[in-house]
Structures are given as C-alpha cells and as structure tokens.
Amino acid sequence: MNDKLNPANPVLIVDDELSILLAIDTTLQMAGFNNIIGCQDSREVNHILQSKKVEIILLDLNMPHVDGEALLDHISREYPDIPVIIVTGAVEVDTAVRCMKSGAFDYVIKPVEEGRLLSAVSRALDFRELKLENLALKQRILKEELEHPEAFQEIITKDKKMFAIFQYIESIAGSSQPVLIQGETGVGKELIARAVHRLSRPKGAFVAVNVAGLDDNVFSDTLFGHIKGAFTGAERDRAGLIEKANAGTLFLDEIGDLSSSSQVKLLRLLQEREYFPLGCDEPRKTTARVVASTLADLKSLEKSGRFRKDLNYRLSIHLIYVPPLKERKQDIRILTDHFLKQAADELGKKTPTPPEELYTLLSTYCFPGNIRELQSVIFDAVSRHKSKVLSLDVFKAHIEKEQGSRKTQKTTEEIYDSYPLAITGDFPTIKEATRWLIAEAMNRAGGNQSIASRMLGISQQALSKRLKK
After folding, report:
1. Of 352, 369, 358, 353, whose CA–CA distance to 333 is shortest?
2. Do the Cβ atoms of 332 and 359 come closer than 8 Å?
3. Residue range 127-154: average pLDDT?
C-alpha cells in the first residue's frame, strides 16, 4: 500500500456547494492526488492557511460570507507563492479573466471538465515547485555554502563554476521534474547524476542505461519490460528498468541518440508518469525521477528534425551544463594527485612523486577527452613507473600524438576558427607575430622552455636561439 502524500502539502478546494467539492475531490483522487482539503465556508480559509502549508488553491467565486474575489486579493497579498485556480461558471468568464490579472494562476469553468482541471492543477503544481526551487537557489547562493557537501565527495574540484552547480543541485533536490545534464565526453556527467540522486533522498535505486544505438524495440523492452507471451521467446514477465528505478532515479545516458519513435514513448512517460510494458494494454505508474545526459547540442538536433522540441522542453526543466576540463585549469593539480594515488593503489605500487613540471605541462593541453582522458594517461604513466620521480615521457608522448592527430585533420578554415585573433590597427608582420607567439607560449608554460617549444612545434634549441635574439 502506498501511503505517500501527493502532493506533499494539501490542495485546498474552496466551494460552498458540496456537490462541486465532492466532484473535484473525486477527480483529483482518481488522478493520484490524495492530499486534499475541502472547505465549504469561505470564512475558514484564512485559518486553514495560517495553520498549515497549502500547495495550491481551487477557489470558487460566488460564495456567501466572503466572495472569491475578496479571498483572492487576500491570498495574493499574504500568500503570493500559492497558485490560485479560479473555479467559475460560464457566465463569469470576464470576472475570471479579471481575477487572473489580479494574481490568479488559471481558471476552469463549471461544470468542471476532467482533463481541463487536471491540466490546470498539474501546471500549478509544477509552477509552485519551480518557484520554491528558485527561492532556495537564491538563498544558497547568498549563503555561499553547501548544506550537504558529502553528496559531492566523488567529484574532485575546486572550481567556482562546479560549486555553483552543486548549489543548484541542492536547490532542485526535492523536485520530481526531469534533469538534463549537458557536457563534453569525460566531464563526469554520471557523477553529477548520482549526486542528484543522493540529494533527492530516494527510497529506490539509481538505475543507469546508455540509450545510444538502441532501436525502438530494444529501448521499449529495456525500459518498460514485457509480459509473458508479448513476443516469441517471452516465456515470463520481465520488469523493465523504469520499474527497477521506481521511487529512485532512472539515468538515461546519451539521450541525443534516441530514435524518433522512442522519443515519443519517453515523452509520454515524462508527461503522464505512466508506461506500457510490451504486450500489456494497462498502463503502469512510476515514481522514478528521470535524469538524462548528452554531449550533443539538443537545440541543433531539434532544428534539424532529429529531436522532438516538446521532449527537449520536458527534459530540460532543470538544466545542468558541466564545463570541460580546459575551463577548469585549477582542478588539474588536485585531479592529478588524486589519480596518481588511485592508480598506485590499484596497481599495488607506492604513489610516485610528480615533478612540478608535470602540472605546467598538463595545464597547456586542452584535454578533448576531459577528466577521463587525464585519468587514463595517468594510469598508463603509473603502470610504467619505476623510479621515485614520475617520468614525463608518457605524458609528452600522449600530448604530441593527440595534438599532431588533430592538427593534421583540421582544414585551413578550422585552424583559423580555432585561433580567433582579433587584430585591430596595423596588421602584424610575420616577425612581430612570431615574437608574440613565443611570448604567449613562454607565459603559458610558466617560463619552461621545454614545454613552450612543444606548444610551438619547434625544438628547444630553436626556441632558445629565438629567445636570445
């Protein structure tokens, strides 16, 4: 038996007609909303609002004692965060519109149509949730601290942008809305998803699936499961991942690669909170929170017709962009130290001593594979390590190989776009441009000629001669 209240705080229905109260209550209960307060006497509304938190209010206009417009004015002034939905007769539409201008969230017309009522209530609940999350985020930013730093202990960082992401995650932790995590490959999108899961304090599990390359049938069977006899070989019922993630988090990695037909099914899951196992005609409900990630630009996919606009909107109600490692240079040192120890522990070796030159060398590299690439090259270096001080040979070879590969693949236009030098005034000569490049390389290399020469693609001897000139 599920005794969880939905929503967490009650929906207040105010109407002097008992039949209307019961009709609205029944409609909401059948839709899964089980936390409802009915009020026939408008004079009691203020007492109710003072004694308990209310999520939204459904308010009749024509009532004895205190009419709906007067109550709306009081609620808008004293409880501005509570959305109010006006319930009115067809002849009072002009009045309802006037009420919306005075602060009402929406209105429905009697006799109340089920779909219209549920749509208004759902949108009001979403609006209320987002409004409270924005308030919580502002408060956290002002405090400049985390309430649950332990939730982010897997993420090694000192970067201010990452700290702002942590604050945002804390502010949306109580939300049931989807989260979309964007970022390049290897930046740690799944670690962010797990942090969202931990802070949501779920009763269920964290279930991850990479949807890239899944055709529609495999996607449906993987996510929604099937019943016995649904297809040849379906000898028994099989629960899908959405069922296994119930009351927890379903993490969909590489959502940008999802097929068009699968996108439709996912959209229904997000909108209706229900799904159909293969071979089953009865929908099943889910309380799993959906977190998705992508390295693709969904807006671009949307414009080219490869991703649904409505699905993108539903997925990105909460949007997190994880910056690449090249924008988090100050994290390179602590990540390097962390991976050196991790690699040594796993390989059964003593943690090697890194030369100071290593951090400078790594800071000059753009890391297209981000943190995962850094971890990989460090493990490779530690596996070959023999002496006390860690050799730079593995790192230098890796950087030269990656940089050489990318440069040979670039067209002239791509090279030009990669280095957008804004030149104003007199155009520099080759000699002047060369002097500038040498100075910039030496600056980025921290004065290290060996590293600077590698950045410039010349020998250290050639750089030394140019510096002497």
Report:
1. 358
2. yes
3. 77
